[in-house]
């Protein structure tokens, strides 16, 4: 069976590999250490995106309102000095080109996903607030994932305030988004969930999950990476089968592509391999 083959393959991988595969709203078909916590890297941006849309529909934010684009943020650690992002550590020059000006929250939310902009992420967290991001995880039914600080908030990080995810929690959030686009759900209206899925489909970093799929396959996904970590989380929409959620989280020395994430490494190839094998079994997933 494909699942036993994947387990045997992943048993040989150094470090911790977690996985979750299943149809949204159904019991999982295959899991592997799905509740193990990993450093979130940029997968935490999924919860920030949901928090923005949820707050907008609750009347607390306006996605189309312009906000200042500034590179200065409050630390999550009380009493710590403000912090800033490093331009060389980011992936999106488009946001940096607007520093000193303004941009809409909707545009910034898109940059969080399509180019994984760190600067846009921290601006959006400053607008929506970390409690709203925590609420997004809770509304999705996540049990262990935490977004405790912004990106490059080193004072908070060094004090133990961190960003953590599990494969099961990422799958729960993505599954609720997929289901929420078809009927009212806890995260946002069907139109809001559909809009978020469209943003995730437009994601430009495609070195892992998307690389294991046939060209042209629709996948709404977000990945995350730092040295030693590579995650891929998405919902795949085949033309010939119902959609399925797939999450692979790796904390491993195979993830040596560096901070920019543009370099395909062995962790990317590992996630692509899992994605390819799950695609081959797409008709046989539990419903």
TrEMBL record:
One of its GO terms (biological process) is beta-lactam antibiotic catabolic process. Keywords: Hydrolase. Transmembrane segments: none annotated. It comes from the Bacteria. Pfam families: Beta-lactamase2. InterPro entries: Beta-lactam/transpept-like (IPR012338), Beta-lactam_cat (IPR045155), Beta-lactam_class-A (IPR000871). Residues 30-250 form the Beta-lactamase class A catalytic domain. PANTHER family: BETA-LACTAMASE (PTHR35333), BETA-LACTAMASE-TYPE TRANSPEPTIDASE FOLD CONTAINING PROTEIN (PTHR35333:SF3). This is Serine hydrolase. It comes from Micromonospora tulbaghiae.
